[in-house]
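Morning. Coffee machine broken again, so started the prediction first thing and wrote up yesterday's gels while waiting. Chain of 768 residues, entered below exactly as on the submission form.
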Amino acid sequence: VPGHYVELLSSMMDVQNQYCVSRPIYSIRAFEHVHERQIRETKSLKERFSGSCRCSTKRVWNIVKMYFPVLGWLPIYQIKQWLPGDIVAGITTGMVCALQGLAYSLLVNVAPVYGLYAAFFPILTYFILGTSRHLSVGPFPVTCLMVGAVVLTLAPDSNFMQPGNTTGVNGTTVMVLNAAARDTQRLAIAMSMTVLIGVFQVAMGVVQLGFLVRYLSDPLVGGFTTAAALQVVVSQLKIIFNVPVGNYNGILSLFYTIGDVFKNIKQTNLVDLVAAVLTIIVVMVVKEINAKFQKTLPVPIPIEVFVTIIDAGVSYALNLSGHYGAGVVNTIPRGFIPPQPPDVSLFSSIAGSSFSTGVVSYAIAISVAKVYAAKHELTVDGNQELLAFGISNIFCGAFSGFVATTALSRTAIQESTGGKTQVAGLISALMVFIVIMALGPLLQPLQKSVLGGIVVANLKGMFMQVLDIPILWRKNKTDCFIWVFTCISCIVLGLDIGLLTGLVFELATVVIRTQFPSCASLGNAPSTDIYKNMKDYKAITEIPGIKVFKCTAPIYFANIEYLKDQIKHKVGFDAVRVFKKRNKALKKIHRLIKKGKLKFTENGLVPVEPLGVDNEAFEREQDPELVKEFEQDMKGGTSPNTEVEVQVDWTSVLPVNVNVPKVNIHSLVMDFSAVSFLDVMAAKSLKLILKEFLRIGVSVYIAGCDDEIIMKLEAMGFFDEVVNRGMLFLSVHDAILYIKMETSDNLDDPMADKVGGTDNDNIRHSQL
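Came back before lunch.
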């Protein structure tokens, strides 16, 4: 038993700490407040409608600021307090963002210069439309990999092989790769997908579908991003080792890629491998130093910038590409490349992947934005963020960039170096602009394996999420299963199908948990109005003759049968079986009376001669005739009780050989305080359950039912002459006190002393 509950109960049972609240017993009459509630809702709707029709300058300005949040914080921008920090943060973040753009372009399978565009254009629109003041907008490895997977699927190398000018050993023409045509097609796919992602996000923002991201729970996102990090690492192996690898996507693509790497491992370029390994080690070590000395360092060490500059200089001085065959960037022109329009014909083939990538990118962005908004006591509008990222992606795709979201590491740099607003983001965009316009050609000797090493080194945080597994196992095993299942699904099936599979599994766990809810039999803490689960507390006692049943989940078509079984288990008998057995016994008694084998005495029914009755054995016979009679009776037929004018004490031994199950309660209280909704099928079945108990003389009461539930029950025709509103009580204790007054003149509960002498006129109904 939890310690704090023990202390709570012990203190309540302490005589010195007792207190008593005297009030009437409250029942609930649903029909008394339905009309009043409807009137209030109608008035509220009219007020909102009349208010929405009013137009004023202030209202128009508020609407404009809602869609253009920059107008809300820019006029109050504190230059002296905020600008220095924004400048430092913008310069630091800009350098990192530019290099990450170059590196993440390898994941999209396009030229590195387009990674710079992806790090530049989205910032401009988000500055105007975004609601987060700390996000660093730009490429992110997971979303880049999702776009890159589609690019490889629609534009593999095999589609661009053409006859060359040379012949093979057998006189066959050697096929060569048309790299220019391949790169053009891949760029068209990437930018078209980015535009379509933006269109989906804008559409979701317009129809207020930002809530959809709530279905992506933290365990689901953790398993997905960890699997995506592994996919990113595997996709970079061909660049780090500089070996030929086939283009794979979909089921088991990760394992096929690893197989190709090991198959061609002898072709490894040692220069590229050594450069990549050194980059990974240096970057990870320096990042650990940045994290450890975060409070003492004025700004984090931009190690990616130093590594890139050093490698570009060494590669240029030693001509690593010419002398050692190292793979270099080699194509970063100065200035902007004229954009090409998106290929609308591709939309039908990339729609599904675009939608899933758009949801994932938004989920990542909004989760990071909420973290820093809570830290700085700011607010983030989820639907406006959808519009902001949607328009940013459309704008970015139109200028040959690829999908943009945010990254926790980059945002952490911007916030930790003093960034206060999106002015820091604008300055980081200026740094990327300088690289595009002036410094781009200087990075042409940069090795691709170094960029791949930077990508891998920045994935440490994602891989560290594996440590969440034992924590989740201790806290909630279901969440742990979601994490592991999603991760394995994404590794085996690919990111798109794996994410969908993980989402289905997650929703299935929710359905299963509501389909098999926790049900309990409640007992009373003596001298209190507290009712707790009998299994969890020792000081809880069950009230004689009364069973308190509690369901802790919504009641709907999927769990109503389970609820029936739980009620049977908790009360200890099946009301339908009791009803049938009693009818069968009454019919036999009636026949014996007619034959003169039974007679009435002061002690009840007495057989004229021994009948050989054995009522101890448990009889499991099923009488089809009785079943038919029961079904007819449930539909409104005549009960056999009306045919036999005999009063029988069902607790005593019967003079016939029919084993009637014992009913050791006279009242059943159903605690619905945790029930959030019921559907039509559940209401119909629940009504049938109540009637089954009422037929055998067990009174049924419903306690703690929410007003919304009562209104829905009223709308579904739940109440009638048998199942009436008098069954509804405000709390379990109200129902218990009412039952005690109805069944006994002496109340045992001291809290009921004040109402013990009242009559029915004193039992008031609350008009809520």
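The longest strand covers residues 161-167. Going to sketch it on the whiteboard this afternoon.
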